[in-house]
Specification:
Order of helices and strands: EEEEEEEEEEEHEEHEEEEHEEHEEEEEE
Number of helices: 4
Helix content: under 10%
Number of strands: 25
Largest sheet: 8 strands, mixed
Radius of gyration: 26 Å
Oligomer: single chain
Strand content: 25-35%
Shape: elongated
């Protein structure tokens, strides 16, 4: 098996796409420039090489896919390599001022199809790409003859799988810190929000679709419906903080109303926003609910009584009470997947400030943080 390497001074003429590729874990893969013909004119066009037809993309993950195509039989035996032009669709025209030496196209030995393209350096989750293919024949003098480019195909990469989420989970466990007791979940918002809950939603807070904050590959962003709650407490008081970025009105509900043995707990994400502190997203879903069914297929489940983030246990006093603890060193964002009656708790005004700079609404994850990123795109 040959080790992938860089192929300087190689190029393919008139690539139909634009973009940048940095890596590919495929046998005998190379990266080459796309800047018209190379300086030494090492590639020439030969019409007799078959053009790939009916390109098909399958087995798509967040950082890999399989590709295959049909070819005419003529000169098929002369094919030694495939040139694969892969680009982010949204960045189609973003690189017109790029340096010509930046590698932008993949060169693979002509292996049996389908072949797997995998590389977290250039494939990101939930991202639209275009791909086109050429066949090539390496000559005895090192030059290449190439076919015309195939048609351009579009596809979109997938969300993180449970394998990737478990990697994030392990990272989150390392930084979670010790467990502190708490007794209420709370949700801050503005007065208009709670007035709307009373007047238009029959005194209920209703689930809404989660925004795009956190990891780009998170399977819950833009899909899972729920209500955000907090549970972190101040170390010196043991009570919720009096400041919030989301509004001066606060709804508080006893923890056992949302978190009890009839609830399943799932790990959703780990991220930061270019700051020293990190956020962990957890999902609370009543057993058998639509939210529970959604999470079972996509998220790692946590033991309610034994995990590093949020626990619910019977009191050691033997009085039948439930006791609750939260992780000290991460900020927990808890999504409850069902409607919540305002009558289950109380709404009051906090005495602190509305710190808008701390809002995580559609917050973008820091892609350079080694603490909360994994090697499958960001």
């Amino acid at each position: 098996m040959e080790v992938p390497g860089l192929a300087h001074n190689l190029s393919s003429p008139l690539s139909p796409c634009e973009g940048m590729i940095k890596d590919l874990s495929l046998d005998s893969i190379q990266l080459c420039e796309r800047d018209g013909k190379s300086q030494d004119g090492s590639i020439s066009e030969m019409e007799e090489l078959p053009v790939p037809q009916s390109i098909r993309i399958s087995n798509i993950t967040c950082d890999s896919f399989k590709i295959c195509w049909d070819m005419e039989a003529r000169s098929k035996e002369r094919i030694t390599h495939y040139f694969i032009d892969l680009n982010k669709k949204e960045n189609k025209n973003s690189n017109k001022f790029k340096h010509k030496d930046v590698p932008t196209k993949l060169v693979a030995k002509a292996v049996p199809l389908p072949m797997t393209v995998r590389g977290h350096w250039f494939l990101s989750p939930r991202t639209e790409y275009t791909v086109a293919v050429q066949t090539a024949s390496k000559q005895t003098d090192g030059d290449y003859a190439v076919s015309e480019w195939s048609e351009i195909i579009e596809f979109c990469t997938a969300d993180y799988s449970t394998v990737h989420l478990n990697q994030l989970l392990e990272k989150a466990e390392v930084i979670a810190g010790r467990l502190l007791p708490f007794s209420v979940f709370y949700r801050n918002h503005n007065k208009e929000y709670f007035d709307q809950c009373r007047d238009e939603h029959e005194n209920r807070m209703l689930p809404s679709v989660k925004d795009n904050s956190g990891s780009h590959g998170s399977p819950i962003s833009g899909k899972l419906e729920g209500i955000f709650f907090c549970c972190n407490t101040e170390f010196n008081t043991g009570k919720p903080p009096q400041d919030s970025p989301y509004g001066r009105q606060r709804f508080e509900v006893q923890a056992d109303a949302l978190f009890n043995p009839d609830t399943n707990l799932y790990f959703g994400d780990l991220y930061c926003m270019y700051t020293a502190y990190h956020y962990v997203i957890l999902v609370l879903a009543p057993k058998g609910s639509p939210g529970d069914d959604f999470c079972k297929e996509r998220l790692p489940a946590l033991d309610l009584t034994n995990n590093r983030f949020l626990t619910c246990k019977q009191s050691e006093a033997g009085d039948g009470r439930l006791v609750f603890h939260h992780a000290q060193d991460v900020i927990l964002e808890v999504i409850f997947t069902e409607p919540v009656e305002l009558s289950q708790g109380k709404v009051s005004e906090i005495s602190g400030h509305q710190l808008m700079s701390l809002s995580t609404v559609n917050a973008k994850k820091d892609p350079s943080c080694k603490t909360c990123n994994i090697s499958v795109g960001r």
